[in-house]
Predict the structure.
Amino acid sequence: MAALLCVACLSLPIGLYIDARGEKAATLYNLWVHVPTAHHVVGLPIEEATEPVLQAEAAGTHQFTPWALFALLLIVATSLIADIFLFQHRLVQSRLAMLCCILLIAWYGVYTAFALMLGARFAADFQLTPWAAFPALACIFSYLAFRAILKDEMLVRSLDRLR
C-alpha cells in the first residue's frame, strides 16, 4: 500500500502557487513546476514563440527544478517494492522499511524547501494539495510494517527456544 501511494504521488500535483490576483501562477509536481504562459518567473524574461510546437507548450512551460523530490520518492517506491520480496530476511526487511520512513520524512524537508524557494521565485503564495499527504500515509504504513516485521521476528525466535 505504501509503494502504491508513493507511485501515485509521483504523477499528481503536490502544490499550487496562487498570485496576488488569486490566479494560479504555477503547479508543483514531483518532477517539474508547470507555469502557464500568462505568468512569468520574477527576474526572468518571457520567451513567447509565434506558434507552439507542442500542445503542452501552448498551455505553459515545465521547469524541472524540483527533480530531487521525484528522485527521493522513486527511491522509496522501488525500495518498498523490493521490501516485499525480502520476506526470508526479516531483519533486512525491517531496516529497509525504517529507512524508507526516514527518506519520506526527508522528502517533506525537501518539499518544504522547494515550496518556500519557488514561492519567492514566483512571487506567489503556496497552497498544499491533498496529494501531498500520500508520502505521510506511506510513512505511516511503512512504520506499521516495521513494527509487524519485528513482532514476527520475535515470535519466530521465541518458537525456536521451545524446540
Observations:
- The radius of gyration is 21 Å.
